[in-house]
């Protein structure tokens, strides 16, 4: 298991193995609604429309660059959640944190994920609290909901 | 019993977002707290829309569908927790004027006028309920625990003389008084 920081990964260049070209930079993470894993990366590239790379299309997640297998793999999306992420409406980093009893706990400062599988292991809040993934219920446009 | 409850004024609940636990979405906003003064019972909430198209929603939120009320939000399991008006929940969309308790003069059964009801106090958490009243007095405010033994006319709220021993002039201290008052009455709810 190789744990990476989502905050540190945002902004990294995405390079295609087959063409060696830079497709763009990691802008957002499309995470599963239950925040269990990263489903896709939103890549801010040269095209006017948002590009998304499926986790399965990623060759490796290095400390400096994100490698995709083929330059043609990242594609546009019409999925509502993908579009919400690209617009910044559903964004884990910076999201309000609220518990099931209705009390806020700051915002999400960073997330840790397994670079081998895409599984999110924990989230850190702006108040310095480390929240294990098992305590997270959901991420929506309003908040990330955690156990009280 | 020394339990301390987490309490809020009903007026502070109005305006809070209603957030879904399964989706992290703000499905609505609390418009009004619907309270049955005759039974001292919290019935639920009417709702406003969120976002650009604010205004009254047709849906309502019964108390039993609330997963938690906190300082920052009212939590529900999912959007299915918000129900259409009508049916068994018609009282929530068309509360009777006779339910009003705010503005009633509070008189103890021993004949003393204690003040005027200015707010209803709600126990927050996963099983919210009304637990008392905030009363404006001549020299400040007072919190009085509610019980089914209190009579309400729309003008006067009669409280048992025993309740006077459990009044408190700050909300935090009142949280400890309510369980003691219930225990004294033999009310375990």
Question: What can you tell me about this protein's structure?
Answer:
The complex is a heterodimer of chains A (148) and B (189). Chain A has 148 residues and is mainly β. Chain A has two helices and 13 strands. Chain A has helices at 6-9, 80-86; strands spanning 3-5, 13-16, 22-31, 38-45, 51-54, 58-61, 65-68, 96-99, 104-114, 120-125, 130-132, 136-139, 144-146. In chain A, strands 1, 8, 9, 10, 11, 12 and 13 form a seven-stranded mixed β-sheet that branches. Chain A has a six-stranded mixed β-sheet with strand order 5-4-3-2-7-6. The two termini of chain A are 29 Å apart. Helix content of chain B is 12%, strand content 41%. Chain B starts with 6 loop residues before the first strand and ends with a helix. The relative contact order of chain B is 0.19. The mean pLDDT of chain B is 84. At the A-B interface, β12 of A face β2 and β6 of B.
Salient structural properties:
heterodimer; A: mainly beta; seven-stranded mixed β-sheet; six-stranded mixed β-sheet; 7% helix; globular; B: mainly beta; 14 strands
Structural class by SSE content of chain B: mainly beta
Radius of gyration computed on alpha carbons of chain B: 17 Å
Give the total of beta strands of chain B: 14
- Percent of residues of chain B in beta strands? 35-45%
How would a crystallographer describe the biggest sheet of chain A?
A: 7 strands, mixed
User: Order of helices and strands of chain A, N to C?
Assistant: EHEEEEEEHEEEEEE
The proportion of residues forming helix of chain B, as a percent range, comes to: 10-25%
Short description:
Chain A is 7% helix and 46% strand.
Question: What is the topology?
Answer:
The complex is a heterodimer of chains A (148) and B (189).
Chain A: E1 3-5, H1 6-9, E2 13-16, E3 22-31, E4 38-45, E5 51-54, E6 58-61, E7 65-68, H2 80-86, E8 96-99, E9 104-114, E10 120-125, E11 130-132, E12 136-139, E13 144-146
Chain B: E1 7-9, H1 10-13, E2 17-20, E3 26-36, E4 41-48, E5 56-62, E6 66-69, E7 74-76, E8 83-84, H2 90-93, E9 105-108, E10 113-123, E11 129-137, E12 140-145, E13 151-152, E14 156-159, H3 171-185
């Amino acid at each position: 298991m190789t744990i990476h920081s989502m905050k540190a990964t945002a902004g990294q260049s995405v390079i295609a193995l087959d063409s060696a070209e830079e497709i763009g930079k990691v802008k957002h993470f499309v995470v599963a609604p239950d925040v269990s894993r990263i489903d896709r990366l939103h890549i801010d590239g040269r095209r006017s429309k948002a590009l998304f790379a499926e986790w399965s299309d990623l060759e490796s997640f290095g400390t400096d660059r994100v490698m995709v297998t083929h330059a043609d793999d990242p594609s546009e999306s019409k999925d509502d959640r993908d579009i919400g992420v690209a617009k910044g409406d559903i964004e884990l980093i910076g999201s309000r944190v609220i518990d099931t009893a209705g009390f806020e706990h700051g915002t999400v400062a960073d997330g840790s994920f397994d670079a081998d599988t895409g599984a999110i292991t924990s989230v850190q809040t702006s108040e310095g609290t480390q929240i294990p993934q098992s305590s997270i219920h959901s991420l929506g446009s309003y908040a990330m909901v955690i156990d009280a | 019993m020394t339990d301390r409850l987490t309490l809020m004024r009903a007026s502070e609940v109005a305006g809070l977002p209603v957030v879904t636990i399964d989706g992290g979405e703000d499905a609505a906003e609390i418009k009004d707290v619907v309270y049955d003064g005759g039974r001292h019972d919290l019935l639920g909430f009417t709702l406003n829309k969120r976002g650009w198209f604010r205004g009254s929603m047709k849906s309502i939120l019964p108390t039993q569908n609330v997963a938690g009320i906190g300082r920052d939000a009212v939590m529900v399991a999912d959007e299915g927790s918000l129900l259409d008006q009508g049916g068994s929940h018609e009282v929530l969309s068309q509360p009777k004027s006779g339910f009003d308790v705010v503005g009633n003069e509070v008189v103890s059964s021993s004949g003393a006028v204690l003040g005027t009801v200015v707010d209803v106090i709600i126990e927050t958490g996963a099983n919210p309920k009304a637990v008392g009243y905030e009363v404006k007095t001549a020299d400040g405010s007072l919190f009085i625990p509610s019980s089914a033994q209190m009579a309400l006319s729309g003008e006067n709220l009669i409280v048992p003389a025993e309740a006077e021993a459990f009044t408190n002039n700050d909300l935090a201290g009142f949280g400890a008084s309510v369980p003691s008052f219930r225990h004294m009455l033999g009310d375990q709810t």
